């Protein structure tokens, strides 16, 4: 795998640690260099010293605030039950003296946003291929009443074979009504503003349709090379969304692409299609 070389070059100063995979199987693993950083977690390369498998290790420092502990437990509880080709694979976790480490499948190609930064906008055939895979993952999640709540280019990983993996379930939530597309008034304001649906801003509740809006924003991101509302700051974007505005759809796209985007970015969530319906769209 292409990622093994940078890991091998960097592990000499890293420690050998013991962890557990699902079902309590102990492993020996080695921590490599930092590959990403979020608001309360870091992600490192890791290698299983027995199988030589490369992993992504999400590491959180102790002690954590109670809210952060709950969020991490919720993420693990969701991930351990998910098995789908287009969702990043959960491998296990360990709780050490100073950190909690969550072991995840390592996706070699990086995120859609990082590839866009390196290569520029995607053409429509490539975008269609990726979007079909994202929709397949979302359909699987929504069938299990799980709302991702942070679909964006940075959380869409692509391996070296072009296989999409939806990642980062840190703010994902299971709809307590056992129906993903049923409106839930108890949902809170969560997500990344430029990919956020109008109903999230209004703080009156929402359903898994928010992931469909965010997917539309990811399609715009892929086809234009930048996120929606790029000329606005976050507060201006929230104001626009709160007034029921959708981001502009470029004129230079095919008619089918524009129709697909218009459906994803339907302001009325009740009229917005589901993942299963969008998989039947002629653009896909």
UniProtKB/TrEMBL annotation:
UniProt keyword terms in alphabetical order: ATP-binding, Kinase, Magnesium, Metal-binding, Nucleotide-binding, Serine/threonine-protein kinase, Transferase
Family statement: Belongs to the protein kinase superfamily. STE Ser/Thr protein kinase family. MAP kinase kinase kinase subfamily.
PANTHER family: MAP KINASE KINASE KINASE SSK2-RELATED-RELATED, MAPKK KINASE
InterPro entries: Kinase-like_dom_sf, MAP_kinase_kinase_kinase, Prot_kinase_dom, Protein_kinase_ATP_BS, Ser-Thr/Tyr_kinase_cat_dom, Ser/Thr_kinase_AS
The organism's taxonomic lineage, starting at the top: Eukaryota, Fungi, Fungi incertae sedis, Chytridiomycota, Chytridiomycota incertae sedis
Record keyword Metal-binding present: yes
Active site (record annotation): 150
GO molecular function: ATP binding; MAP kinase kinase kinase activity; metal ion binding
Pfam (any one): Pkinase
Organism of origin: Caulochytrium protostelioides
Binding positions for Mg(2+) per the UniProt entry: 155, 168
This protein's name: Protein kinase domain-containing protein
């Amino acid at each position: 795998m292409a990622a093994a070389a940078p890991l091998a070059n960097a592990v000499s100063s890293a420690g050998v640690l013991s962890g557990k995979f699902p079902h309590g199987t102990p492993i020996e693993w080695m921590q490599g260099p930092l590959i990403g950083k979020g608001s309360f977690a870091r992600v490192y390369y890791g290698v299983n010293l027995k199988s030589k498998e490369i992993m992504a290790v999400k590491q959180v420092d102790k002690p954590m605030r109670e809210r952060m502990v709950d969020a991490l437990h919720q993420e693990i509880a969701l991930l351990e039950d998910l098995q789908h080709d287009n969702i990043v694979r959960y491998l296990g976790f360990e709780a050490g003296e100073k950190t909690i480490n969550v072991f995840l499948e390592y996706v070699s190609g990086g995120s859609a946003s990082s590839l866009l930064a390196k290569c520029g906008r995607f053409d429509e055939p490539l975008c269609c291929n990726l979007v079909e895979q994202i929709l397949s993952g979302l359909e699987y999640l929504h069938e299990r009443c799980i709302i991702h709540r942070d679909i964006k280019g940075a959380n869409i990983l692509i391996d070296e074979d072009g296989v999409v993996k939806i990642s980062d379930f840190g703010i994902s939530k299971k709809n307590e009504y056992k129906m993903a597309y049923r409106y839930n008034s108890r949902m809170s304001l969560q997500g990344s503003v430029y990919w956020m649906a109008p109903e999230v801003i209004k703080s009156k509740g929402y359903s898994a349709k928010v992931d469909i809006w965010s997917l539309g924003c990811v399609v715009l991101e892929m086809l234009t090379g930048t996120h929606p509302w790029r000329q606005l700051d976050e507060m201006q974007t929230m104001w626009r969304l709160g007034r029921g505005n959708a981001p502009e759809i470029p004129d230079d796209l095919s008619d089918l692409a524009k129709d697909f985007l218009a459906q994803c970015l339907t302001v009325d969530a009740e009229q917005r299609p589901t993942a299963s319906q969008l998989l039947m769209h002629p653009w896909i």
